[in-house]
């Protein structure tokens, strides 16, 4: 009988870095939301084109909703990160460091990272 770690060989430490553009978009959107919530007085609204007045409108008329969406987004990222760990285990990714990398990358970039883990299809070797 082949040991589980040998059967999973390459799968045990499978990791793929998320694509830069979707990752950058995620970071910019979450960063901008954080800026809106924690330092709204420092935003140069006039320099942001149509985004400036829209941001002012959201903060003036939907302040509570903006806060709720910000924290909901982070809660979703936490959930995605925990799901990444579950996926790692179910796909035979047993290396602790690799699992941590998937957790952190998914926490920071969300679906931009999780997509690659979901799409990963480990090769199952026959057990003898």
From TrEMBL:
GO terms for cellular component: membrane. It is found in: Membrane. It is a multi-pass membrane protein. InterPro entries: TMEM254. It holds the Pfam family TMEM254. The chain crosses the membrane at residues 21-39, 68-88, 100-118. The keyword ATP-binding does not apply. Keywords: Membrane, Transmembrane, Transmembrane helix. The keyword Iron-sulfur does not apply. This is Transmembrane protein 254. It comes from Bison bison bison.
């Amino acid at each position: 009988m082949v040991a589980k770690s040998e059967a999973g060989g390459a799968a045990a430490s499978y990791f793929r870095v998320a694509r830069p553009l979707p990752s950058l978009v995620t970071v910019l959107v979450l960063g901008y939301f954080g800026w809106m919530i924690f330092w709204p007085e420092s935003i140069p609204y006039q320099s942001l084109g149509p985004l400036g007045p829209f941001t002012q409108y959201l903060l003036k008329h939907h302040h509570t909703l903006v806060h709720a969406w910000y924290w909901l987004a982070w809660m979703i990222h936490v959930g995605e990160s925990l799901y990444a760990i579950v996926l790692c285990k179910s796909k035979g990714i047993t290396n602790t460091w690799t699992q941590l990398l998937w957790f952190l990358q998914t926490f920071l970039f969300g679906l931009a990272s999780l997509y690659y883990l979901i799409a990963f299809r480990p090769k199952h070797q026959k057990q003898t």
